[in-house]
Amino acid sequence: MTTTLPTTEDLRARARAGLERIGVTVPDGPDFQARTPITGEHLFGLAAATAADTEAALTATRRAFLTWRSTPAPRRGELVRRLGELLRDHKSDLADLVTVEAGKIRSEALGEVQEMIDICDFAVGLSRQLYGRTIASERPGHRLAETWHPLGVVGVISAFNFPAAVWSWNTAVALACGDTVIWKPSALTPLISLACDRLLDRAAEDVDAPRDVHRLLLGDRTVGEKLVDDPRVALVSATGSTRMGREVGPRVAARFGRSLLELGGNNAAVVAPSADLDLAVQSIVFAAAGTAGQRCTTLRRLIVHRDIADTLIQRLTAAYHKLPIGDPFDETTLVGPLISTTALDGMQDALTRARAQGGKVLAGGNQRLADAAPRAAYVEPVIVRVDEQTDVVREETFAPILYVLTYDTLDEAIALHNDVPQGLSSSIFTRDQQEAELFLSAEGSDCGITNVNIGTSGAEIGGAFGGEKETGGGRESGSDAWRAYMRSATNTVNYSGRLALAQNVSFL
Ligand code: UN1
């Protein structure tokens, strides 16, 4: 168990060294502070983008788009390939910054950078595979086809919890698709954003691509609002809370822009009587307590068959009591800090409400290291037994709280599973093939990510990532999510020399 923490001075030096190796000079400014959740203290004062900076970024990325869109896609892929190489070279420095700013444990911080490298590889391949279909025309001597063209400037609004990977999912794919990008990261993670922006800048220099294919704008929500409202931004890809999405979606729609929303999750796993419990316990602990419960895909509800509930709960509480909580740079730590004391207040408020709504806390919930770091928020992940899905269970609390419910029939489990407003990720643990297939079927989970015998979090980049209902409906990353970053045109070419109207219409 970690009882000591690095000093803020150590963390500042570590961040500065990594940034310098990447080529970033920390921009000194009075507007806001880079901070670390490890001690909860400030690292550097930074300058925020002004309205003039935002305007300049819009003009520059729009102008760059006009050349980038007609750069052959495989040439565009070369920029993304170079970015991937630089990410590999600086993997350790970038992971340090993720740990310093987001508090992720080493292995997860390295995993986040790996996710960036992976999406670059994917997008390089994609740059030669932006396929359109040829369609059988109903008319003789006609060719009917679908063509995909670049869309325009993409505004990326990202959250603190995947401060770099979510940017890379959007940016690597958007650049390969011929778009240019303006990035407004979370104000909680400016340093990793500066590092990613600098590496992309270096990549552009190395392959002779226009620098203005990408602009970073640090700052508060006013910057994001400008991207949301400006008609020069063709697509707004926003990751964050459902509350944020409720504002972004209608505002972008009001100007007929496109939005791609990745909002809250309230992910559940069903554990059936036939489940391999060793596998289930390991998977559940990672999915529920990993990343200190701060993934969109974090497991928040467990729906367990009544016959195995006592055994599973007993094994989970035993595992929770042993979780090493503390300094995320310590290789033995599994649970780092929450992002802020505000997040801790939100968690404690949810626990108070859960108790008032009949929940019983079975494990965890105590704050740790409050003496060593009063401004930080270390907390024991919590398991709460509930009899029904009360209000608080149906909400996403961005903290490590796992609500446990029981079921008797699979139909009941699926009904409980789907009876929340969100629809991101889901799992079933079972060795019964019929149950697994039913869960994956149209009558099963209503989520965008549906798994068997693996937890809800930690998706690979090759599949499309996103969810339904209040999660927002967007798809990013792999599979055919690239289509959201392009516009399609349907082409009818008449090579017959005669006019033939569709639907057999005759005229003249
Ligand atoms: C997020 O939490 O915003 O599937 C993204 C996962 C990660 C991405 C999570 N690959 O958990």
**Beta-strand proportion:** 15-25%
Strand segment count: 23
Shape: globular
Low-confidence residue ranges: none
Write out the distinct hetero groups bound to the structure. Answer: 2-aminohexanedioic acid
Spatially, the strands of the biggest sheet line up as: 12-15-16-11-10-18-19
- Cα-atom Rg, whole angstroms? 24 Å
What level of helicity do the residues show? 25-40%
Q: Would you tell me the structural class of the helices and strands?
A: alpha/beta
The number of distinct helices, counting runs of at least 4 residues, comes to 14
* Main pleated-sheet profile: 7 strands, mixed
How far is it from the N-terminal to the C-terminal residue, by CA? 86 Å
- Please tell me the overall pLDDT: 97
Task: List its salient traits.
five-stranded parallel β-sheet; globular; alpha/beta; ALDH7A1-like; 508 residues; oxidoreductase; Ald_DH_CS_GLU; 14 helices; seven-stranded mixed β-sheet; NAD; binds 2-aminohexanedioic acid
Short description:
With 508 residues, the chain is of the alpha/beta class. The chain contains 14 helices and 23 strands. Helix 3 crosses helix 7 and helix 5 (106-126) runs parallel beside helix 6 (165-176).
Task: Note down, in words, how this protein is organized.
Helix 3 packs antiparallel against helix 5, helix 4 runs antiparallel to helix 7 and helix 5 runs parallel beside helix 6. This protein is α/β, with parallel strands linked by helices. Helix content is 39%, strand content 21%. It has 14 helices and 23 strands. The chain has a seven-stranded mixed β-sheet with strand order 12-15-16-11-10-18-19, with helices on both faces. It binds 2-aminohexanedioic acid (UN1). 2-aminohexanedioic acid binds next to loops. Belongs to the aldehyde dehydrogenase family. Homotetramer.
